[in-house]
């Protein structure tokens, strides 16, 4: 998805509009497939809408910062900083989500990530102050995104995973309509639409639907830190594709540091739940419950 977004922004330099097209396509496609009976999608229900509002804001802010990084930096810059995020998420998992602290192997892996990131910045010949400011902003947003969305996925019950996709992208569509109208009317008015930019946009929208679905599915299955590490390991393929497409790369030494970071990320082990965090029967009750077959009302606790 990183390469696809990079290509889409390269062909159509309007990141807000690219995001708007992606989330609108996801929302509309999911709802349409639900109406046709191909998938099960939750109906519009206010308690769930409220629960997913901040999920959408966190998701949207993270992707927007992501696209701004890609606009100012090379892809490797973004990937290597993303590879260091398990260090923060691992501690936050312990503080907020009831996980054990990382074991020695995982701690070594996360420290290796930090060293690799530091060396990359040192050797990166394409240092961009504006770009790295966006990286710092993204880092904070991403950490919140990983933790809060995991909390919501664990506590808000939906009829299917498609419901999460629908609610998140619906809120994102509403927010991005205003952002795009305010930030990019001149860019869109002067854009010459053609096969290349329309194809890049269309492909990014199609992949966005799949990414949204499987990301939520994965978040429900593993811890916030493990989800972060899985994403980092997948970036090896991104680097290989990027090397064959773009001329704006890091130096060979910087690339080596990048692979050190990704290798370290792959050695991380998911921390188990703490014994004192095992939920009681009351704590297991989800924040949102769906109607049962007997017609029980939904409730927000």
Automatic annotation (TrEMBL):
Membrane-topology annotation of the record: Multi-pass membrane protein
Subcellular location: Membrane
Annotated InterPro entries: TPT_transporter
Chief location: membrane
Keywords per UniProt: Membrane, Transmembrane, Transmembrane helix
Transmembrane spans: 17-39, 51-69, 75-95, 107-123, 135-153, 165-183, 195-217, 224-245, 251-268
Protein name (record): Sugar phosphate transporter domain-containing protein
Superkingdom classification of source: Eukaryota
Keyword Transmembrane helix: yes
PROSITE patterns referenced in this protein's UniProt entry, alphabetically: PROKAR_LIPOPROTEIN
GO cellular component: membrane
């Amino acid at each position: 998805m990183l390469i696809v977004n990079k290509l889409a922004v390269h062909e159509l330099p309007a990141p807000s509009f690219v995001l708007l097209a992606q989330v609108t396509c996801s929302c509309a496609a999911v709802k349409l497939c639900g109406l046709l009976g191909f998938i099960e999608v939750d109906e519009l229900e206010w308690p769930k809408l409220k629960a997913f509002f901040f999920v959408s804001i966190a998701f949207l802010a993270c992707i927007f910062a992501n696209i701004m990084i890609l606009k100012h930096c090379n892809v490797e810059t973004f990937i290597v900083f993303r590879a260091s995020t398990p260090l923060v998420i691992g501690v936050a998992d312990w503080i907020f989500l009831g996980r054990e602290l990382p074991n020695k192997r995982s701690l070594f892996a996360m420290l290796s990530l930090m060293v690799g990131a530091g060396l990359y910045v040192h050797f990166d010949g394409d240092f961009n102050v504006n770009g790295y400011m966006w990286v710092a902003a993204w880092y904070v947003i991403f950490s919140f995104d990983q933790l809060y969305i995991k909390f919501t996925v664990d506590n808000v019950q939906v009829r299917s995973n498609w419901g999460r996709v629908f609610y998140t992208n619906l809120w994102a569509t509403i927010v991005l309509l205003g952002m795009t109208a305010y930030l990019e009317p001149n860019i869109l008015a002067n854009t010459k639409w053609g096969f290349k930019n329309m194809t890049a946009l269309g492909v990014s929208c199609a992949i966005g639907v799949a990414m949204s679905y499987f990301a939520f599915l994965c978040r429900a299955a593993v811890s916030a830190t493990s989800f972060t590490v899985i994403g980092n390991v997948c970036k090896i393929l991104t680097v290989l594709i990027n090397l064959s497409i773009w001329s704006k790369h890091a130096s060979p030494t910087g690339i080596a540091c990048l692979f050190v970071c990704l290798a370290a990320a792959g050695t991380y082990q998911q921390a188990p739940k703490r014994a004192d965090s095992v939920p009681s029967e009351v704590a297991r009750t989800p924040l949102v419950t769906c109607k049962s077959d007997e017609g029980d009302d939904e409730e927000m606790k």
